[in-house]
Request: fold
Amino acid sequence: MTTSVDTISWTIRRLLTWTSDYFSKNQIDEPRLSAELLLAHTLGVDRMTLYTRYDQTPTPEQTEHFRALVKRRKDHEPVAYLTGKAWFFSMEFGVSPAVLIPRPDTETLVEQAITILRNESTEVRLLDLCTGSGCAALAIAKNCPQAQITATDTSAAAIAIAETNSQSLGLAERITFKQGDLFEALGPGCPPFQVIIANPPYIPSAQVASLAPEISKHEPRLALDGGANGLQIIARIIENAPHYLAGNGFLLIETAFDQTEQCVQLLKATGRFDEPRIVHDAARNPRCVAARLRVV
Reply:
């Protein structure tokens, strides 16, 4: 973003064009969108406003701030971390490198939980394991007012972000966050839940480094690494969930597309669940598994 012509005017139009080309040359995904989001963030406006102010020239301070963000994006730092926010289920969430960036993939998990809870007319209890930013739990809370939700995460930093999101979204009274390792965070004497959901780490350890640099270099490994086969955390959840589910309660787990069959076998091996099923997303890809606790 330099020129030998001192009199050049770095209008919004010129900044977007230059930055989009720069990102393209450096193989940054969605170069135009990245440029728009970063410039809109810098100017404190939405993306559409940029197009109504094409000939406006940002202040030197704004241009310098934008330049710093462009340099960081060129190093594959995710836009969501640069702006501190991400959208999920039509809701805005605060994010930082302490949590995974919410992804559309997880909407399938949320939709399944909402479908189950909407059949309940009285108060129901839901547990969200590995909550991260709290996006899944809070999306469910917004859409299911009868749900009382508890969410856990092993990361204290993640819990702090999730609590902040619950406050900014006006849902803090409906959800309790607890820091700790999966079910251990609940402590003794916890009443059972009608639904347990989880979007746990499920990337095999050896594959984490080969992920896109936005993920492998910047997102928290703690929230990605699922052990040698990617199923280490999932297996623990399946083993312990029956102790925390109410009779006929549901367990919903997001997995990698090539892990769903293995998860079904893990569920069957417990002998505690009715026939597990694989849930597909809108693109018909296997996205999560669902199972109902058998009453014994």
